[in-house]
């Protein structure tokens, strides 16, 4: 194409090598000053994560972005790092983390009552799970746009937001409107007593009672039971921990791990009770929000509105976001959308990485300042030797 690099060598299934184009048309533009410093970039492919990590440890790979909290906490105790040959850094990033969550299928009668959904959110013991499974390295998702200026968390609604939300007086909870709301963290001892007390109160209000250790519908005696789909072993580990918390108040939860094809088919046809999902986000959300949260998408198989959100206020906030003529109005509309989604209790929020975890051999160097979007490899450079340029 017309970029700064050209394809030099392709080894199918193994590697792809790019070399810098000396005749790149944009090399002297001010916007490119200090960028594209590598003469050669080679991308190597590995069949499994363990082999890739071993290649990094031995120096066959120069740079690694880490996504596993377990590896980040325990896997980097090897000679090269102890000898100072590898740098391990948590770099700041200010792009939205998106929303990783356990999603209620609100089309199911069992999840139609928001009090039931609120109860199950309170039973998710974030503090304990993060400590025991993830070494206290994750942050709890408090927004659909966490880690960015688009998040409404801990911010009172501004005048623009209040004007947008005025036609929908019941769409946002007061504590979310004034910025005082946070999903509750437990004491971290694995008991979550306050969460259980609050959850049982909400479930009683929704018509459920405990009988002989089983939560049932008071009028019919029907047990409270549902299924959570899982696709991977790591998902299953998290879900079993959550299911144990639900079992303690008499809720019967089944965890079913299915293959990727069945998982996608059931997600696309909304054939599930609860499912893990991740919605990515950028600093410029747009039409995709309608496909994720719009009322029409809730009835459209294959859409990403897997929660079944049908909410006039959501539709209106998406429309306001798309019609905004200034950055200020745009940010206000997105924050208003965030507040309505949070108020709807459509998901059990999970976690996000508060920083970018990066490890690299010291022959690579980077600028002192990290861009808004996190590290950008085209601003880095390399030394030909370990210590001398």
Structure characterization notes:
- It is a single chain.
- The protein is an alpha+beta fold and 389 residues long.
- The chain contains 14 helices and 17 strands.
- A three-stranded antiparallel sheet has the order 1-2-3, with no helix packed on it. It has a three-stranded antiparallel sheet with strand order 4-15-5.
- How would a crystallographer describe the biggest sheet? 3 strands, antiparallel
Which spans have pLDDT < 50 for at least 5 consecutive residues?
none
Category from helices, strands and their pairing:
alpha+beta
List the strand order in the largest sheet.
1-2-3
Measure the end-to-end span: 30 Å
Oligomer: single chain
Helix percentage range: 25-40%
Strand content: 15-25%
The beta-strand count equals 17
Task: Give the integer mean of the pLDDT values.
Answer: 94
CA gyration radius, whole angstroms = 24 Å
Give the overall form: globular
Number of alpha- plus pi-helical segments:
14
Short overview:
It is built from 14 helices and 17 strands.
Give the SSE layout.
Blueprint lengths: L4 E7 L3 E6 L19 E5 L4 H10 L4 E4 L2 H6 L4 H4 L3 E6 L7 E6 L9 H9 L3 H9 L4 E2 L18 H7 L8 H4 L15 H13 L2 E4 L2 E4 L7 E6 L2 H15 L4 E6 L2 H9 L5 E6 L8 H6 L1 H4 L13 H12 L3 H18 L2 E3 L1 E2 L3 E6 L2 E2 L15 E2 L7
Parallel strand pairs: 10-11
Antiparallel strand pairs: 1-2, 2-3, 4-15, 5-15, 6-12, 6-13, 7-14, 8-9, 16-17
Helix pairs in contact: 4-8, 6-14, 13-14
